[in-house]
Amino acid sequence: MNLDPHRHVSSSQYRESPVPISLANHFLCFWEQVIVGSGNYDHRVLPDACVDIVFINDAPPVVVGPWTDPFVVRFPAGTRIIGVRFEPGRAPGILGIPAAELLNRSVPLYDVWSASCARSRSALDVPTAVSQSALALTLARASASAAPPDGAIVAGIRWLARHQGATVDQLSRWIGISQRQLQRRFSAAVGYGPKMFQCVLRFQRLLNCASRAGRPVPLADLAAIAGYADQAHMTREIRRFSGCTPKALIQSAGCTLKMSDLFKTGHPVSD
Question: Which of the four, 70, 158, 201, 203, has the lowest number of CB atoms within 10 Å?
Answer without folding.
Answer: 158
